[in-house]
Design goal:
Strand order of the largest sheet: 3-4-5-6
Number of strands: 6
Strand content: 25-35%
Order of helices and strands: EEHHEEEHEH
Number of helices: 4
Helix content: 40-55%
Radius of gyration: 15 Å
Length: about 120
């Protein structure tokens, strides 16, 4: 997974852009975690817990987007996808779902979080 961080120096805003197929990861990091030291520490703690107890599932529920670590896989998904009726696999929403959920390995995810913390200067 490739990513890029930018900062609007006039507004003091920070942005995350992730490679195609992982856009939701960037949105999650930017919108749900942002510059919050507390949330970043919580994510780091969940990563450490997951490595210590890989058979357990570790979740961080967000307002719109949530993260789940299961074993060595991290899934970022919009909350609306986990509610309501299951959609047919061949439904017209498949393309939308592709942009609303993404997975990556825990090592790549840990690198993303570490680089974000460095970029923020924490």
């Amino acid at each position: 997974m490739e990513f890029e961080f930018t900062r609007n120096t006039l507004m003091g805003e920070y942005y995350v852009k992730c490679s195609m197929g992982h856009e939701i990861v960037g949105r999650w990091l930017q919108d749900e975690i942002g510059k919050s030291k507390q949330k970043l520490q919580e994510v780091e703690h969940l990563i450490a817990q997951s490595k210590a107890l890989p058979s357990d599932e570790h979740k961080l529920l967000g307002h719109e987007i949530s993260m789940v670590i299961s074993g060595d896989e991290v899934i970022i998904q919009e909350n609306v996808l986990s509610h309501g009726d299951e959609l047919d696999v061949e439904s017209e929403f498949d393309f939308y779902n592709c942009e609303s959920t993404a997975g990556c390995g825990i090592d790549d995810f840990e690198l993303l979080i570490a680089r974000w913390i460095d970029f923020l200067g924490y």
